[in-house]
């Protein structure tokens, strides 16, 4: 069985991606949670189980897979439902997940995940607005092009998992999206696995991460 190392559910957006993917697809795994060091780097602490000193990290027997995208691809080798069945939807889903993985830096910096709280943004800078506009465009495209309740069709796939932390961020910071995107956000926020994540996050100690 897979072992997935993650950090604090309230703050660790990267940890949420493979966790929600496994949960939403009903793939069994053991969860190992290692708390962030309060106010300092957790690198040394995480190096004990993760070669990069970062979470998430998946261990499967002798195999260690670090980085959320590599983990999704590794799981996909045994579980084809990780990506959409349709080739065109799969290409779109991979592109959108990769864009999330390597982009949206302003959103990540200005709207850190804090899924149990509501916070006020000082202002929406042009750079942040660009990220928000791009998110709306990507989500709207997936939802209209593939016509399902999830971003790349009727099934929850890795692309939904990759944007899951953003669904929390929209709630925390009161970010505004089109009705089409908001319907997906609401679906994500009401997903039983997202609710389970928040309930666990609420029981964690707050830190100055
Ligand atoms: N690109 C990596 C990013 C992983 C990452 O940045 N993880 C953060 C936590 S969300 C971390 O482990 N930080 C260590 C620290 O804060 O010292 C991935 O996709 O897994």
UniProtKB/TrEMBL annotation:
CDD domains, per the entry: GST_C_3 (cd03194), GST_N_1 (cd03043)
InterPro entries reported for this sequence: Glutathione-S-Trfase_C_sf, Glutathione_S-Trfase, Glutathione_S-Trfase_N, Thioredoxin-like_sf
Segments passing through the bilayer: none
Residue ranges of every copy of the GST N-terminal domain listed in the record: 2-83
A Pfam cross-reference name: GST_C_2
Name recorded for this polypeptide: Glutathione S-transferase family protein
């Amino acid at each position: 069985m897979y072992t997935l190392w993650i950090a604090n559910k309230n703050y660790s957006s990267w940890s949420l991606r493979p966790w929600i993917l496994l949960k939403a697809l009903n793939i069994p795994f053991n969860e190992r949670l290692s708390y962030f060091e309060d106010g300092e780097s957790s690198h040394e602490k995480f190096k004990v189980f993760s070669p990069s000193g970062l979470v998430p990290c998946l261990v499967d027997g002798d195999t260690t897979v670090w980085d959320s995208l590599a983990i999704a691809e590794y799981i996909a080798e045994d579980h084809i439902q990780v990506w959409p069945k349709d080739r065109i939807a799969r290409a779109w889903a991979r592109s959108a997940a990769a864009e999330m993985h390597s982009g949206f830096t302003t959103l990540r910096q200005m709207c850190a995940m804090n899924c149990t709280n509501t916070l006020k943004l000082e202002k929406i800078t042009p750079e942040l607005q660009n990220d928000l506009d791009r998110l709306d465009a990507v989500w709207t495209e997936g939802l209209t092009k593939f016509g399902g309740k999830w971003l790349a069709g009727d099934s929850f796939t890795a692309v939904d998992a990759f944007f899951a932390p953003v669904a929390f961020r929209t709630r925390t910071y009161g970010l505004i999206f089109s009705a089409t995107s908001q319907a997906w956000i609401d679906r994500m926020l009401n997903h039983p696995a997202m609710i389970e994540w928040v309930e666990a996050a609420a029981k964690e100690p707050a830190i100055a991460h």
